[in-house]
Amino acid sequence: MTDAKKIKIALVGCGGIAQAHWRGIQAHVPELQVTAVVDSDATRAAEMAAKTGGEAFTSLEDALAHGDFDAVDIMLPHNQHEDAAILAFAAHKHVVLEKPMATTLDGCETIMAAAMKARTVFMVAEQSQYWPDAAKIKELIEEGAIGEVITARAFFGGAVGTGWGSKPWRYDKAITGGGICIDGGAHWIRPLRMWLGEIEEVVAVTGRPLAEMEGESLAHALFRF
After folding, report:
1. Is 93 exposed, middle or buried (0-12, 13-18, 19+ CB in 10 A)?
2. For residues 171 and 92, what is the distance between their CA atoms, to the nearest angstrom?
3. What pTM was estimated for this model as a whole?
4. Over the stretch 70-107, which tens digit does the pLDDT of each residue have?
5. pLDDT-above-90 percentage for the chain
6. 60, 125, 161, 178: which could join 215 in a potential S-S bond, CB 3.0 to 4.6 Å?
7. For the chain, which domains are there?
């Protein structure tokens, strides 16, 4: 595919998730061309620019004013999602936004209103709906191949001191909007909704055994679909 036919995209945020998105683009999406990268850390932006061939910027405002791209892939800490998405929609860009959409329901509704006004393509990057196993289970349920599903169980967990331990911003409730549920837990709530429909009722208990995490680090929930 020639560069003239490719969709030009800006990577907004150049942390760990951005590295995964870039690898995915390289391996699976030849239709995309990274033409801009944005990070408040100039060194990190420059490093990502060297990898991708995109132009480096230290603010989304600057990138929107001077960059050349059709879409943005927003991979920032949760509390920055709303402002970044609204800026991009105001510039009539297509938007891929890492989950969660925002840290509050009001924030989500504001983003949706901006997307509708812009009339551009909008997607929340929740990958679990594309897991091959999750998609196959949905197919089997819809075909009636495994009978009526009356219950399903999902588990998400990890050893203390691994994964999130290297990302201390995830321990700050003001940044994340919560704890384990709004972050990793979302990956399992989405497949349950795919298989069983919309959630009608929730009974839950949460706790903070990981004291340094301001939000919940333990949660048990029962959903009625």
Report:
1. buried
2. 33
3. 0.92
4. 999 999 999 999 999 999 999 999 999 999 999 999 99
5. 87
6. 178
7. 3-125 (3.40.50.720), 130-224 (3.30.360.10)
